[in-house]
């Protein structure tokens, strides 16, 4: 089954593809846009455009651009923007985020849960620096080890220990790369659990409701496998931090 379709179905109830509650998302966006009467935002790996649509709905003087390789996700972004009446302020590009270029810099760059598109956190920071206006802000979300991962956790995530560090080391690396955290959020265990139950539940329920679809069996298998990997593998080991950063 196509991985992008799995992701779209799994995020049907929660289009923010990260373990963040609605309140956490709203607070981070409010802080990201604080002090600016208007501006331009860019989401690298925007998926269904949930971050940008919420930003535009809350900030009538902002405009935004989203970049993603998932054409169906971009279609949903347009639909969501149209439903909220913000479609004229949103531009969408079906493009690899690494290839995106702009003549004008952005006041806010977002990359939450999509740093893999650039090969990790530090390359994402370097890419964002080239697109950010002086005084602009970067909202970036990344995983970290809440505790030393077990072999079960590493197997479930198909990860190596060196793929992540603890929160302190991760933050030190961000600072060493020339960025200053001005706000942030560490996802709580209830946020993680709600996200994972929604992810696996939405996918499993779709399979139950569409037994005639050729992908129904694969969808149910993916949901069951993901649930087991989470509960028996990485739950409590993998954390998620969202930084609001400014350049030094």
Automatic annotation (TrEMBL):
Domain of life, per lineage: Bacteria
Keyword NAD: no
Domain Methyltransferase type, residue spans: 42-138
GO molecular function: methyltransferase activity
Keywords: Methyltransferase, Transferase
Gene3D superfamilies: Vaccinia Virus protein VP39
GO BP term (any one): methylation
Key word Methyltransferase present: yes
Pfam families for this protein: Methyltransf_12
PANTHER family tied to this protein: CYCLOPROPANE-FATTY-ACYL-PHOSPHOLIPID SYNTHASE (PTHR43667), FATTY ACID C-METHYL TRANSFERASE (PTHR43667:SF2)
Protein name: SAM-dependent methyltransferase
